[in-house]
Specification:
It contains 14 helices and 17 strands. With 406 residues, the protein is of the alpha/beta class. It is globular and about 70 Å long. The structure holds pyridoxal-5'-phosphate.
Length: 406
């Protein structure tokens, strides 16, 4: 793993912040950057093969349609799905989870059925279930986290019962970085016949993900968090479940036929891709997956853990600073922290003045912050192009900011 070499592949990272400071980009949990190969793929799409898909009667539309379906095949291969019909293109993780909540949930949940999620979820994996509960009379229950930032599995076992119809959880937390024990949760889900939904927004970019091995029913992730284009996401769904789902959006492309009497939906996955999809993004996405495969997901995960270890060691020496969540060996490349007497927003502002980009706030995880008893935190999140020098820049900037504020 040579992050310095990878960094060279990302033109945006060579910029200077406000023309002066080198950019230390540590906000990869929010969105990652695109290497030159993905930028080139986007340009190639626009200059050679862009057209609408699945509706053309001409050569260029056929080229675009073939490439669109090839992208679906590439995603299928990347996540180890057994059938390309199980890959639905969406606009992102949020859209993917909403699609399950509406398309599957509205049909299968009723009064007093239970939806089990966890306290560490992103709002995208909370609110769609709360809305589903509002529509159906179902109840949302939360698996608590323990002191170390892990799910309390004993509590989960007590919570999950024959009333549980769906269990939706993050593969990795976007705040704590905690990697959740999918196999344990699958065992609990299978024991009661619950459908499982895995929010892989923070895992698919950082570790090997094989949906068949995991055995989950639905998996959601976003291209923009894994070197890919913005505006594209994926919903993996088990074919037998997708086939039983109603389309959520109606319109062009998602139908088999329409008459004045009604409509017949198309087969899966087209049924869930109403309207003109994110064509350019879908066509360029394989270039991102190729890049990730060339570096290797295992190597990326190991590299991020090394950076986390270094960051933990260095940040822990700063007076009043507390790191949230588990030890580096149990998480992805995320380090969230709070500093006594310094608001995370002020800290992020001070870091930005030194060219270090982190995120501050509740990171779309207000229930988690409420549980931790803090309104907000500062988060740095690593990726394959981050280096030990980036960690040193982070530590120096935090130290300087803390001295300034105290
Ligand atoms: C764990 C998790 N789930 C869902 C999302 C939502 O992803 P998107 O905004 O791409 O839909 C995010 C984004 O930060 C996330 O970290």
């Amino acid at each position: 793993m040579d992050p310095h070499a990878y960094k060279q592949d990302f033109p945006i990272l060579s910029q200077r912040v406000r023309g002066t400071q080198p950019l230390t980009y540590l906000d990869n949990g929010a969105s990652t950057h695109r290497p030159q190969s993905v930028i080139d793929a986007q340009i190639q799409v626009d200059t050679e093969c862009y057209s609408n898909v699945h509706r053309g009667a001409h050569w260029l539309s056929d080229v675009a349609t073939d490439r669109y379906e090839e992208s679906r095949d590439r995603v299928q291969q990347f996540i180890g799905a057994s059938d390309n019909r199980e890959v639905v293109f969406t606009s992102g993780t949020t859209a993917s989870i909403n699609l399950v909540a509406r398309g599957w949930g509205d049909k299968h949940l009723g009064e007093n059925d239970e939806i089990v999620i966890s306290e560490m979820e992103h709002h995208s994996n909370i609110v769609p279930w709360q809305q589903l509960a509002e529509r159906t009379g179902a109840v949302v229950k939360f698996i608590p986290i323990d002191q170390t930032g892990h799910l309390d599995l004993e509590a989960a076992e007590d919570l999950i019962s024959s009333r549980t119809k769906v269990i939706a959880f993050a593969h990795a937390s976007n705040v704590l970085g905690t990697i959740n024990p999918v196999a344990d949760l699958m065992r609990l889900a299978n024991a009661v016949g619950a459908v499982t939904v895995l929010d892989a927004a923070q895992s698919a970019p950082h570790m090997k993900l094989n949906v068949t091995d995991l055995g989950v029913d639905f998996v959601a992730f976003s291209a923009h968090k894994m070197l890919g284009p913005n505006g594209l996401g994926v919903l993996y769904g088990r074919a037998s479940l997708l086939e039983g789902m109603d389309p959520v959006l109606g319109g062009g492309s998602m139908i088999h036929s329409v008459s004045v009497d009604g409509y017949v939906p198309a087969a899966i996955p087209t049924r869930f891709e109403a309207g003109t999809p994110a064509i350019g993004q879908a066509l360029a996405f394989p270039a991102a997956l190729d890049y990730l495969d060339a570096v290797g997901l295992d190597a990326i995960h190991a590299h991020e853990q090394q950076l986390c270890e270094l960051a933990h060691r260095q940040l822990a020496e700063i007076r009043g600073l507390t790191i949230l969540g588990p030890e580096p060996a149990q998480k992805t490349g995320i380090v969230s922290f709070v500093v006594d007497g310094v608001h995370p927003q002020d800290l992020a502002f001070a870091l930005d003045q030194q060219g270090v980009a982190i995120r501050a706030g509740h990171h779309c995880a207000m229930p988690l912050h409420a549980k931790l008893g803090i309104p907000a935190s500062a988060r740095c999140s690593f990726y394959l192009y981050n280096t030990e020098e980036d960690v040193a820049a982070l530590t120096a900037a935090v130290r300087k900011a803390v001295n300034l504020f105290s």
